[in-house]
Design the sequence.
């Protein structure tokens, strides 16, 4: 029987998870692919470190030794940073290998180039693990929603941020304690700034945008905010009124315009993301034929990420060429009125004398916190003049503004 030879670049949480899963699920892989899957080589930073890797596997710090192996079918990349990973993967494609990556930062920057090169070389690219950990959102969009016209994708896309927000609320832990736990659990990036400042979710959102719409918004136009401005007091205050913080990424198409944002918002009990807790991620896809689909599952960690990579391994081994690099909706979607400005907001650190007369105070959940009905542009102006004021949109729940009222406000 022929063998599929795999090299794994990186042996951190993700690389080790892939190696172990190839051993533990050898029988299933063999049954689906019809060939044995064998790890031929692993690229590591430090060769001396003790690792549980079979003696027949080449363990090396030198990529050249891997790319020159006499037989190599698939290169799995589980490192971080844009370089040298991009160069390694280009070399692997040029050699005729299929590639699989979990590196969202690199793929958000260079995915288009890798896909184009792969098409020229007639090999496949798997990137399921770049978005939402173990949730098969990429394959769902790429293979199962090819005709539907997608209008919006909304998601909790960073497991670390969601884990921290949950720990701070449930266990009354500090931000620092919760982040440390996320790092211990293997959820956080090597540089956790990427997680807590929203960069990781931003890269994932750009990858989703390209799949859903065939293009991305201008990156500087995308509002990106992390979770570091959310204090324990703030979390406790909103709990009094039945709200929870969720870090939500949104990408939508309005007419021909792609609009994106990545930021913390407040949701009430009726919102599908209210109960998405801990390291879980969730993705809502809105499209014209099927309506709304919600996918939910573990967003980070050794085996959820390995699961995404192993499923990609089957996908590329079966030689699924993607004719179009990404699923596309080139038809302009019907244009909706401009996003309504009137909304409910949690405002922190505001002196009541600064409130605009037209704003309505709906609740004062704790000292220093107000829930107000206000226009976004007014709040933006106020926060610009008073930088200690911060505010978060309330998406759903008791404080949601009825859509007819919003529409009336838009028209007036
Ligand atoms: N650091 C990432 C997260 C890993 O927490 O979501 C999975 O992409």
Sequence:
């Amino acid at each position: 029987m022929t063998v599929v030879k795999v090299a794994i670049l990186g042996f951190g949480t993700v690389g080790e998870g892939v190696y172990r899963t190839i051993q533990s699920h050898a029988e299933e892989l063999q049954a689906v692919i019809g060939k044995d899957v064998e790890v031929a080589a692993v690229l590591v930073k430090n060769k001396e470190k003790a690792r549980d890797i079979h003696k027949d596997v080449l363990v090396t710090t030198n990529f050249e030794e891997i790319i020159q192996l006499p037989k190599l079918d698939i290169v799995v990349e589980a490192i971080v940073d844009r370089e040298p990973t991009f160069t390694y993967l280009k070399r692997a494609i040029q050699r005729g290998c299929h590639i699989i990556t979990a590196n969202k930062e690199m793929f958000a920057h260079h995915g288009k180039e890798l896909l184009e090169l792969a098409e020229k070389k007639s090999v496949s690219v798997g990137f399921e693990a770049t978005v939402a950990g173990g949730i098969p959102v990429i394959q769902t969009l790429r293979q199962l929603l090819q005709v539907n016209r997608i209008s919006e994708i909304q998601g909790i896309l960073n497991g670390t941020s969601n884990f921290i927000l949950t720990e701070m609320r449930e266990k009354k832990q500090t931000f620092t304690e919760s982040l440390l736990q996320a790092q211990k659990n293997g959820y956080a990036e090597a540089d956790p700034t990427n997680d807590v400042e929203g960069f990781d979710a931003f890269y994932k959102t750009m990858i989703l945008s390209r799949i859903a719409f065939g293009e991305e918004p201008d990156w500087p136009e995308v509002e990106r905010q992390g979770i570091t401005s959310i204090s324990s007091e703030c979390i406790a205050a909103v709990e009094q009124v039945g709200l929870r913080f969720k870090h939500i990424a949104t990408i939508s198409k309005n007419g021909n315009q792609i609009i994106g944002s990545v930021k913390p918002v407040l949701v009430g009990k009726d919102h599908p993301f209210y109960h998405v807790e801990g390291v879980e991620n969730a993705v809502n896809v809105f499209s014209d034929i099927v309506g709304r689909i919600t996918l939910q599952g573990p967003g980070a960690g050794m085996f959820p990420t390995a699961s995404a990579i192993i499923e990609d391994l089957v996908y590329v081994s079966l030689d699924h060429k993607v004719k179009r690099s990404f699923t596309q909706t080139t038809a302009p979607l019907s244009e909706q009125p401009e996003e309504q400005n009137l909304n409910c907001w949690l405002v922190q650190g505001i002196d009541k004398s600064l409130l605009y007369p037209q704003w309505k105070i709906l609740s004062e959940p704790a000292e220093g916190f107000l829930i107000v009905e206000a226009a976004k542009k007014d709040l933006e102006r106020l926060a610009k003049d008073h930088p200690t004021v911060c505010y978060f949109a309330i998406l759903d729940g008791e404080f949601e503004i009825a859509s007819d009222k919003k529409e009336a406000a838009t028209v007036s």
The domain at 3-126 is CATH 3.40.50.720 (Rossmann fold). The longest strand covers residues 244-254.
